Amino acid sequence: MKNTAAKDGSRHIDFMIIDVVSLVVSFALSYLIKFRDLGFVQSSSWMALFYIAILIDIVICLVSNSDSKILRRPYYEEIVHALLLAFYNLLAAGVLFYVFKIGTVFSRQMILTMYGLYFLISLALKCLWKKLILSGKVRIYNPKKTALFVVGSGESIDEIIENATGGDFEKYEVKGAFIPGAAAASVEVETVTDSADIVPFIKANGIEEILVAASPSVLGDDIYKALILNGIGVHLSVENLLGFQTEDYGVDTVGVYNTLSAGLYSFTAGQNLYSVLKRAVDIIFSAVGLVFLAPFTLLVKLVYLITGDSSPIIYRQERVGRNGRTINIYKYRTMVPDADKILRELLEDEQYRAEWEANQKFSDDPRITKIGRFLRKTSLDELPQLINVFRGEMSLVGPRPLVPGELEAHGGMKLYMQVKPGITGWWGCNGRSNISYRERLELEYYYVKNYSLYLDFLCVLRTVLSILTRDGAE
Questions:
Q1: Over the stretch 216-242, which tens digit does the pLDDT of each residue have?
Q2: Options 3.40.50.1970, 3.40.1190.10, 3.40.50.1980, 1.50.40.10; which CATH number does 146-257 get?
Q3: Residue 338: CB atoms within 10 Å
Q4: What is the pTM of this model?
Q5: Mean pLDDT of 264-276
Q6: How far is it, in rounded angstroms, from Cα 217 to Cα 198?
Q7: Where in the chain is the domain with CATH 3.40.50.1980?
Q8: Residue 26 confidence (pLDDT)
């Protein structure tokens, strides 16, 4: 079967060229700002650093795959990607300076200026180039499409074809289809009515690959064998194999058996390494935040006292932390003092009980105070959790801390508890409170499996935007 990854990775060579050009311009400008000339072109040591910086940038672009799906992602995400790319380059340069003890040979101020300019220039040029491509004013991509044959049910064949040919560049072109149990079908591609005609049709039309988006049993063993012997790439839909969609799968071996293994997941080496950096960031930011927490807490207390509420304003809740460990998290109280008692009374009402069982919350909770509603709208009620972050029980970014027994009551997701819960998370920037409880769990599960420096940056950026626009917060 053909290796399509290489082709996918080469699609955005133009954006990589923009990165390199941006670095070259940034290097020249920062040198000009620092030394008032472009004398580096006559210096062997500076030119060596120049070429090394370009090489580092190319390697980081290839390894990080920072331009993946660049034409489909929102423009504001380019800020995060450009910032991370500049950060990785600066980090690599710092390691280079330290290892080879050249910090006194080259101007560190000039290097910092260079990567600051690199961030701004590459971001501007990429956004401009992206806009030109999406507007149709520039068209440089015209890749040779791979001929594909599709097997699927009549009700969903159009959707299957659309999904298979989607993406940035429509890599596949469907040349034929087979709909099991249908004598004929009203689709735009040519169809075969007998499975025995599939292999001859594929060979006659130069088709390279086949997608079976139905139960694999709709085709006989002889057909699969003939396809493989003729060098036709066979793709079996995991959703149809298992009965549901999952991303946790891979090819493995059990004894002498080659298997498609699902449900086995382990964090990557990069994620394990990042967890160390993540903890360091948590300590620094929570320590700084705690300095401002004390006076703000006094202000909140004063406002409560003015309204005649003298009950404690710090509310402690029992939650499930990493590895299922029970922790006590802290929040500003946003409800009336006897909220638990009122909840029990509300749950006696069938309408309230149904809403609580579905979402673990009320859309219009009568227990929330006026001050509490403001704190929730601005997410300021979460600030005392900086104490939990500093103590290592939580992280700045992570899945929502769950009530004991909550996860088990909704089907359970063991991997959910393999990372620390966070003050904000992937749910907090993808709809905030305007999504169902199950959708919230699935978003959290996505974060747990894919957490990274980029995703954390994106979480923080989106959360800030959600707070500023008051989008979905409660």
A1: 889 999 999 999 999 999 999 888 777
A2: 3.40.50.1980
A3: 11
A4: 0.61
A5: 79
A6: 15
A7: 146-257
A8: 96
